[in-house]
Design goal:
alpha/beta, 7-stranded mixed sheet, 13 helices, about 30% helix, GTPase activation, Rab GDP dissociation inhibitor
Length: about 450
Amino acid sequence: MNEEYDVIVLGTGLKECILSGIMSVKGLKVLHMDRNSYYGGESASITPLEDLYKRFNIPGNPPESMGKGRDWNVDLIPKFLMANGQLVRMLLITQVTRYLDFKVVEGSFVYKGGKIYKVPSTETEALASSLMGLFEKRRFRKFLCFIANFDENNPKTMEGVDPKTTKMRDIYQKFSLGQEVIDFTGHSLALYRTDDYLDQPCIHAINKIKLYSESLARYGKSPYLYPLYGLGELPQGFARLSAIFGGTYMLNKPIDEIVMENGKVVGVKSEGEIAKCKQLICDPSYFMDRTEKVGQVIRAICILNHPIANTGDVNSCQIIIPQNQVNRKHDIYVCMISSAHNVAAKGKYIAIASTTVETNDPEKEIKPALDLLEPIEQKFVSISDLYKPTDSGTESQIFISSSYDATTHFETTCEDIKDIYCRMTGSEFDFAEMERRKQDIFGDTD
């Protein structure tokens, strides 16, 4: 282990594994270490079911009605992939897709007045939706047409809107959309977590709504994908990519010390040996004194023996409860998967409710979501602290990822990855450059 590396990566969470893969593809010498014996870090998938019971200190073994323990693969941090989103693009361009199989999530729903409704995201669905009255439907349909045609390089499509100065609040006003339509548009289509976006330039929200619509157009049922056998497959896929390009992996490796000289990282000490490096990537748990707590997330993993009511008995779905519907500042998310994804025993469903904590009684905060899931066979509740790095890392060359937020999609995860890449290299993440680098080594392998 007494070797010199360009980059050492600590922790095998998805962000760390993707960055390890990217740096290896760039031709850097990468060493990847984790004190755990499994991939995924805090975003791991847990199998068998007995291990989940132990992790949450639930006494005894799972009942026989839960089936075989090995039939289960439960994500600690549930998220779906946007079919046209950044993570899918990273998977395709690196060809990590060859190690994975995906299924389309069957439904996307929004909560209103204690009930759930299918999210209308096309002009046809808007006209058929029971979420809105007749006149509201027409106005929403015009709004969707405007978004679909909007091109910031073509002034004719803008209808007098300046994408960089017009606020999103003004766009909603332009189409006379009511508060409840604004709620589901901003939170279920644009996937914002709070209403802060209303006073930001409209181009950001327009692009997010376009992403939702384009992702939906790819498969039809919903804009979301989920990998068979759980999210734990994703970091392993990128770990294989790194290994193909010369990356070295060491699991179950204790980290004794981060070696510094003149305020800069120069290596990592483990079991008496030092591996030298020029740069270090890690999750917050490896460097708590360089992070700050910025909040908490509550997640409740619920095992059900039935699909969620009023979803049309789908095998998988996402439900967003907009903050205004339950007098909160942050949305509540529910995502459900099942035996159809090889993550649960036959006839069983895993539904996970999550939100950003706002009070001293976090479990009460997700009650609207838990009420939708009843009856619940078994519940595993966790409250996680959220951390972000206190500095950019450009002086110390230590680049720390942020904790995973409450959202049930990977777009914010990808933004953090691109931000770390930019801080490390001084240049924006470039998908095309990564593709060229890969082809230079292996040729066109599509």
